């Protein structure tokens, strides 16, 4: 069973996404910010991290950079989520960007696409 780490400082969003992915028979871990997520990712080694961009203590872009720089977590797929109108992923190494608000069924298909390697991962 694949493990997903959902990271968002909005508890309602985290719970909603986690419940939906849990129904897809995925193991779902949650974190409220990037620092907490980094600790969890290093311990649990999820296959995919779905993280909000704008969070306190450590944002999603910095989390992505740190995961990609660490040899133990480098292979984790990172998908960024944002409601910001203008946003560039930059060089953090994220596989993709999801715009909020998003359709939960579409999110499920996207997550499974990355897990099943049927979605092209951008460099």
Ends distance: 26 Å
Low-confidence stretches: none
Q: Main sheet?
A: 5 strands, parallel
On the 0-100 scale, what is the average pLDDT?
89
Q: Given this structure, which CATH class is correct?
A: Alpha Beta
The helix/strand series, from N terminus to C terminus, equals: EHEHEHEEH
CATH architecture: 3-Layer(aba) Sandwich
Percent of residues in helices: 25-40%
Give a written overview of the molecule:
There is one protein chain. This protein is an alpha/beta fold and 123 residues long. The chain has a single domain (3-114), classed as 3-Layer(aba) Sandwich (Rossmann fold), CATH 3.40.50. The chain is 37% helix and 20% strand. A five-stranded parallel β-sheet has the order 2-1-3-4-5, sandwiched between helices. Helix 3 (60-69) links the parallel strand 3 (48-52) and strand 4 (77-82). Helix 2 (34-44) packs parallel to helix 3.
From the structure above, extract its key features.
globular; Rossmann fold; alpha/beta; five-stranded parallel β-sheet; 37% helix; 123 residues
How are the SSEs ordered, and which strands pair?
Blueprint: E1 3-7, H1 11-23, E2 27-31, H2 34-44, E3 48-52, H3 60-69, E4 77-82, E5 96-99, H4 104-115
Parallel strand pairs: 1-2, 1-3, 3-4, 4-5
Helix pairs in contact: 2-3
In short:
The chain has 123 residues and is an alpha/beta fold.
């Amino acid at each position: 069973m694949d493990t997903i780490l959902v990271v968002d400082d909005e508890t309602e969003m985290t719970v909603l996404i986690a419940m939906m992915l849990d129904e897809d028979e995925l193991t779902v871990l949650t974190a409220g910010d990037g620092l907490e997520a980094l600790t969890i990712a290093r311990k649990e080694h999820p296959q995919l991290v779905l993280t909000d961009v704008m969070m306190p203590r450590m944002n999603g872009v910095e989390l992505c950079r740190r995961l990609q720089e660490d040899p133990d977590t480098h292979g984790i797929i990172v998908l960024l989520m944002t409601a910001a109108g203008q946003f560039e992923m930059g060089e953090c190494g994220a596989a993709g960007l999801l715009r909020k608000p998003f359709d939960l069924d579409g999110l499920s298909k996207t997550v499974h696409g990355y897990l099943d390697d049927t979605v092209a991962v951008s460099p």
